[in-house]
Amino acid sequence: MNPAPILPSDRQLVGAVRSGSDAAWNELMGRHETSVRSMLRSRKERKALAKRLANLRDTIENEDDTHEGDPAIRAFRPRALAALSGGTYGPTPRADGEHEQERSDPFDVTDDELIATAFALLPEPWQTVLWHSHVEQLTAAEISPLVGRTTNDVTELVNTAERGLVDAFLIEYIGVGPLPPECERIVSLLGGYVRGTLPPHDQRLVERHLEGEASVAESSALNAAPAAHNAANAEASPFAPPAARRHTPDDSRRLVEVIASLGSFVPSAIAPGVTGLSVEAQRQALGTTSRSFGSAGLLAARSDRFRRFATFGAIAGIVIALAGAAYLVRQPFDNDGTLITAGGDDTPASQVPVTTVADEPDPTVATTEPAPTTTEGLDLRPQPSGPRSAVELVVTDGIRAIGLRQAVPDLTLAVSSPAPIYAGGTGTIDVAVTNSGAAAADATVELLLPNGVSLEALAAGDAACTDPEGDSPFCTFSVEAGATLDFALRLRLESSTVGRLVVEGDLVTEPLEAAIVATSDLVHSSVGTGGVVTIGNSLMTCDDTAAAELGIDCADVRAGAGEFVNRWDVPMEFIGPAPQYGIVNSSSAVLDLPDASSIVSAHLYWSGDLEERQQSIPDDGSNELVTVLAPNGEVTQVVADRLSLGDIDATQYLGSADVTDIVAAGGTGSYLIGNVQSVEVQGSYAAWSLVVVYDNDAEPRRHRVVTRPFEWVAPQPRFEYDVDLPVPVVAGADAHLSIVAFEGERGFRPEAFTVGGEPLGGDAVFDSTISGERDPSYDNNLGVDIDAYDLVIDTADGTLPIRATSEKDGVRIAVLALSVDLAS
Questions:
Q1: Is the full-model pTM beyond 0.70?
Q2: What segment(s) does the record annotate as region Disordered (predicted)?
């Protein structure tokens, strides 16, 4: 796994400075003072440094941190440089340190100025990582401790921030002055064109435009001379701007170059804007006087950095003085946690509350460490594996109910954990009670639990468990003489903090200490005799009437045969509308569980397009509601517990709801889902899926986990789904994996889906197929893919790598459901 960051973030340290922490200020200075000092060119300036720093600290301490975007919680280094140079943290476009002059033509705006303006509109975390990655040219590993995120998280955040900056840049370009509608559409598509995420129709539109093959309407709009409009506007504006700004294919090609080489353009645009310094002064302030900000210089710098990284040399010419750089073991901090909440610097270090990030240290990394020391007044050295949550098992003679508790000397307990213990999920503790006495023993085990840990259920075994209000939970059992009784307890861990779970007690032969691990987007985790079943169906298909007018046979489309096999090429319509019941669409699928099964968990997922081809559904929250008809005849309107919008295209959404009670009452059989909101137009989709975790004594004991990532997979630049899922340590174990994906199309390949390094599904994994019995049952479901795989896995390190990539198509990995057989 990716190791957690070993330092608190700059943002957290700034928060601690506001609380009066000298230690946090010293840590900030230790990180950034070299760059701050490097800008001072005279003895007079150096003498004034202490006063300027004191003023900066006073400013920070007196600021109100009540909303996102407050300057004091943004990147500390550019803010310090701005304060000491007389600049401003805006950012606002500057030219060599001077305010820009009035323009005679308001349309005469440079790309650098638009990038700087777009940068100013980004969320604070995006600005911070773009500053460190693009201006200072730090690696993700170097940025990790500054922002309190893992290296993988930093890489993902930088990619997201770059996409956001590109989109904001294009919006600013469009907003400079009026463009013909055709031009606005072309410009708005250029970001997706460079990323390779456009649907085929839009891809072809942009390609024709860039090649100078635009339609007549586009050509006239793109190439119309502005002079014809000047006379009409002469009186309205002293500059007589054109009614429609000129935009040619050459302009689009220039924008494509800017987007494709964003790293070459960002430093010169952002650095002066952030600090008020010229580019040259910014280089000097960062100690990078030999580095060019041009694309060639950036490429050379990257090459040099990689070369030096390979030899463990200096870091890219930027000197970062980290106070305590020799202290390699420090307490990881949660990105939104509080460093010091009370007591200021008088609070003993051992009492400073901290939280950890949701990542475990990499077990493959050597653990030999230098002796840690502390930064003044700031203890960063608690156990790197996170805080300790201790569970104590107190065994008495079984008459707890009447208040008499006596020890049982002939009993001993052995405790173990068969599977990962998930932060924010559950952990299962196996208990083996041995009676070495000559007579049977009735006993009670009381669970003394820490805050945030509760007893969820007796997961297995012959015991009876009770969780009385206001008292500790306990389980009663009987053990024959000379026998051993096994049972399992499922604990719920409310906190998403990683750490260690310790189970101990006077009769416990050897205390258990297990890692509390984390995985993103966790919905369910448990151990039990039973498995996970995933069903679902599409709610949209080819429109027969409209398609026939275009010479398209929908029967061929649904069979996945012929020329037209994806939703971008055919008109779409809802399946199963029933207006008399208020249902705009519906479809069904059969839930088939073994006899005598009981429902542990059931979650319903649904997805669609809020907007497509200038059509949209009302923004009235209707996409949060769906209708469920269960096999028992009960009709229920379900409200989303959670609704997520797509990270690349926010018009696509995923709703989800806990429907455990509905499925437990409805039982096995056909589930009909209706009223999933989506636009009914060419290129759109709508679908649902139901994931059910069940117990059944006739089946093997399994580890079961469900996640809902709703992550984007696409080509150029490559977006990959990449997760190391914590699982039990097994060798040659049977496993079952279900995956729900949206937007996957036939005809776009290659795609790859690997689990444990083994490829699944060939080179067209997300090809709009759905497994299981359902109605209607089409071969080609036009943007909806629900697949199931039986696997044999080996996980010696306790992780299962899952990867998804696509070279041609955009796909949303929505839900994963995994079960792994455990050794008996």
A1: no
A2: 85-105, 354-387
